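Tokens help. Consider this.
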Amino acid sequence: MIGLILIMVVTGGISLLAQGHVKSMFAKYSRVGAQGGYTGAQVAAQILRSSGISDVSIHEQQGMLGDHYDPLHKRLVLSTENYHGRSVAAIGVAAHECGHAIQHQQAYAPLKMRMAAVGITTFANQGLSYLFFFGMMSGLLSTFAGVAAMAACWGVIMVFNLITLPVEYDASRRAKTVLSQLGFTATPGENVAVAKVLNAAALTYVAAFITSLLYFLYFLLPLLTGRGDD
């Protein structure tokens, strides 16, 4: 139990640091206007057009940093601040989401794997709650079965988070390249600012992977050492 509490403290701290860093970088560079003067939505539209993508729609969504690309419905969703914003942060985030749309168009293997794993990962996330409250806490499952099931669920989540890392870093790489190629970032300073925002955002995915890895190992090791029956 002490080990579990320690993992909760460590992973919680890592997540808070990562989230705090991305919010800090976003807030800082949201106040720095891009010299081109384009909004995030305009940048996204032009990137998609230049990439030959005509079947992805761009939508505005309320809330901070809720930006995402929905491959199932081919929707690129930008938060209000980034949809209308003309900052280096706004165009960087918009270009990053376009990077996912380009990955989808080009059948980028890690993205395809990630999409295929969404269903089982959702099941694993739900399974964690059911296992803890209705399995192990109620005594319906033996210690071994409960620990094995928890390890399996965290293993699925860990693999999903691992696959997510190249997807996110590749999207950021594509974003930096296309912004420069299309002239949306006109100075080295703007390129650096975009990189800082996107690199900070990527750290949240690293934190998620570390968290899932530590929980997976916590439940796996007792099985490997024979302590799962205790």
Notes: The chain has a mean pLDDT of 93. The chain has one domain: 2-225. Residues 2-225 form one domain. The CA atoms of residues 69 and 76 lie 5 Å apart.
